[in-house]
């Protein structure tokens, strides 16, 4: 008894799934076609909203990355200028600007100073 019930339910679900995919709609009457059309339009609207949200998020992330890149570029230019003014020898170049917004990790000399000269 339960097996027959599950089998009938599965058949009905497969038929509904075929209808939603646009297959085997010839057996539907006008009202059923209108309902199916509404369901599909609502689903499509949800997909479009989700897609638009994903695009907006990607644009926002790209803009943030561009801003960070610009800040790092400007910091690099500033560091080069300070090193040129100090003759590349001052190890307190970053410490002169205590109010700088650049993290401490970017301050200091290269780990292998000789490798910078070979380039």
Describe the structure.
With 119 residues, the protein is mainly alpha-helical. It has a domain at 28-86. Helices cover 68% and strands 0% of the residues. The longest helix is centred in the middle third of the chain and has 56 residues, at 30-85. The model has no long low-confidence stretch (mean pLDDT 81).
Relevant terms:
119 residues; 0% strand; 3 helices; mainly alpha
Mean pLDDT: 81
**How large is the share of residues in beta strands?**
under 5%
Structural class: mainly alpha
Taking the alpha carbons of the first and last residues, their distance comes to 82 Å
Rg measurement, Å: 32 Å
Number of DSSP helical runs: 3
Biggest sheet: strands, sense, closure?
Answer: none
Low-pLDDT parts are: none
Order of SSEs = HHH
The coarse overall form would be rod-shaped
For the secondary structure, the number of strands is 0
Overall helicity:
55-70%
């Amino acid at each position: 008894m339960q097996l027959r019930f599950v089998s009938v339910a599965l058949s009905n679900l497969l038929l509904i799934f075929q209808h939603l995919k646009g297959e085997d709609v010839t057996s539907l009457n006008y009202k059923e076609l209108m309902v199916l059309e509404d369901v599909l339009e609502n689903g499509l609207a949800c997909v479009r909203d989700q897609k638009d949200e994903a695009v907006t998020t990607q644009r926002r992330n790209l803009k943030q990355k561009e801003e960070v890149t610009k800040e790092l570029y400007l910091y690099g230019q500033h560091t080069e200028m300070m090193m040129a003014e100090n003759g590349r020898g001052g190890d307190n170049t970053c410490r002169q600007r205590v109010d700088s917004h650049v993290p401490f990790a970017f301050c200091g000399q290269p780990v292998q100073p000789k490798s910078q000269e070979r380039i």
